[in-house]
Design goal:
By secondary structure, the chain is of the alpha+beta class. It has one domain: Aminopeptidase (3-Layer(aba) Sandwich), CATH 3.40.630. 29% of the residues lie in helices and 22% in strands. The chain has 4 helices and 5 strands. It has helices at residues 15-21, 36-50, 105-119, 134-142; strands at residues 6-9, 58-64, 70-80, 87-96, 125-127. A 5-stranded mixed sheet has the order 1-2-3-4-5, with helices on both faces. It is globular. 23% of the residues are buried.
C-alpha cells in the first residue's frame, strides 16, 4: 500500500507555502475582540520568522503527497519547560491545507513530532491550541494530550 504522504525537511522554496497556509491558523471561531485580519497578520509574521535560526533543535517539516504537493507543515523545537527546566519538545505550528483535512495528515505529522522528540531523548511534547479550534483540540485529546494550563481572558469594557 502506497503512503498517502511523506514527511520531508523544509526547503527555502517552501517559504511561500508557509506564508500562504498561515491563514489557516485563523479559520476557527475567534473571541469577539480578536479579528480575523489581525490574526492572519500575526500568523503571517510568525510564518515569516519561523525559518530564521533553524537548526537541529528547531526544525520545520512538510507533509507532501506522492507528486510533491505540499499538504501541511510542522514546526517543532526543543525547549526548557518553565517550571522544571527539563528539556521538552514544543510544537510551534502544525497546519494542514483544507483539502487534505480529515485524511490523517495531521496525525502523521503529530506522530513524526513524537518520534522527533524521542530521538532526542525528550520525555515530553507540548503545544498550544485555541480552545475554540475544536478540530485541532479534539485531535490532540484523541492522541493523548492533556490540558495542563488554561489562559483565561476577560474583555474590559468602559
Amino acid at each position: 500500500m502506497q503512503e498517502l504522504c511523506q514527511i520531508r525537511p523544509f526547503h527555502e522554496s517552501d517559504q511561500v507555502f508557509l506564508l500562504e497556509v498561515s491563514k489557516r491558523f485563523a479559520q476557527f471561531p475567534l473571541m469577539n475582540w480578536r479579528t480575523k485580519e489581525r490574526m492572519e497578520q500575526a500568523n503571517y509574521h510568525l510564518a515569516e520568522q519561523a525559518t530564521i535560526n533553524l537548526n537541529v533543535d528547531n526544525e520545520i517539516y512538510l507533509a507532501v503527497d506522492t507528486t510533491g504537493k505540499r499538504l501541511g507543515y510542522l514546526h517543532i523545537r526543543k525547549q526548557k519547560e518553565f517550571f522544571t527546566q527539563l528539556d521538552q519538545a514544543f510544537i510551534l505550528s502544525l497546519v494542514v491545507i483544507e483539502e487534505a483535512q480529515g485524511k490523517g495528515i495531521a496525525q502523521k505529522l503529530m506522530k513524526f513530532a513524537e518520534d522527533w522528540a524521542r530521538k532526542r531523548g525528550l520525555e515530553q511534547i507540548c503545544l498550544n491550541v485555541f480552545r475554540s479550534n475544536d478540530r485541532a483540540y479534539d485531535l490532540y485529546r484523541y492522541l493523548g494530550y492533556e490540558v495542563e494550563t488554561v489562559k483565561m481572558v476577560k474583555e474590559l469594557s468602559e
